[in-house]
Write a structure and sequence with these properties.
The chain is an alpha+beta fold. 25% of the residues lie in helices and 26% in strands. It has 4 helices and 7 strands. It has a 5-stranded mixed β-sheet. A two-stranded antiparallel sheet has the order 1-7. α1 runs parallel beside α4. The N terminus is likely disordered.
């Protein structure tokens, strides 16, 4: 007998497995040829106000050590502050795999009090890092696992399941020709 566990529902499991999964699970089942989102200026309408902003797509090298090689697409939303007294702040979503742009582009999005304060003095750039959010390619790993009811799940079992998920995910993306070494934070 087994029950279904959703990683998003069990924060402590995510913490235990984060180191293992973080390398591989830098986030959704897209491919190299996705249609890009429309770039350019727009009015960002949030539940707590409207801000001038711009969508930007940047082509960057897949591998930093091969600037002329294959390119990937990084997406960002640049929200313009009331005054530009300070350099822009960068918003990097938590992870692994979170979307920086999704934070402000999702329905009913709102800014935190700190973000509102920052926008009084500087711009904020919400970015989808390589492999996450609206970046192309966008990588995803299976986010659930089958765990036995007996014995009850424990730390060792969770590490074993997390390791298996990470290995399966890495295999999937390597089979699709993805160089996972190019998706680390180094």
């Amino acid at each position: 007998m087994a029950f279904r566990v959703r990683w998003s529902d069990l924060k402590w499991i995510r913490s235990v497995c984060a180191v293992i999964v973080a390398f591989f699970a830098v986030a959704s089942c897209a491919n190299w040829s996705q249609e890009p989102a429309r770039d350019g200026p727009f009015e960002l309408e949030l539940t707590d106000g409207t801000w001038s902003a711009e969508r930007i797509s940047l082509q960057v090298p897949l591998r930093h050590d091969d600037p002329e090689g294959h390119k990937i697409l990084i997406r960002l939303v640049w929200v313009f502050g009331k005054e530009r007294k300070l350099a822009p702040f960068f918003f990097l979503a938590g992870g692994p795999g979170g979307s920086g742009t999704g934070k402000v582009l999702r329905k009913n999005a709102q800014l935190t009090p700190l973000e509102k304060l920052i926008l009084n003095y500087a711009d904020i750039i919400f970015i989808d890092q390589r492999g996450t959010g609206a970046a192309i390619p966008r990588l995803i790993c299976k986010d659930d696992a089958q765990l036995p009811l007996v014995p009850a799940p424990n730390r060792d079992l969770m590490l074993a399941v997390g390791s298996r998920l990470a290995e399966d995910c890495a295999k999937l993306w390597r089979e699709r020709g993805i160089d996972l070494q190019a998706f680390n934070m180094a």
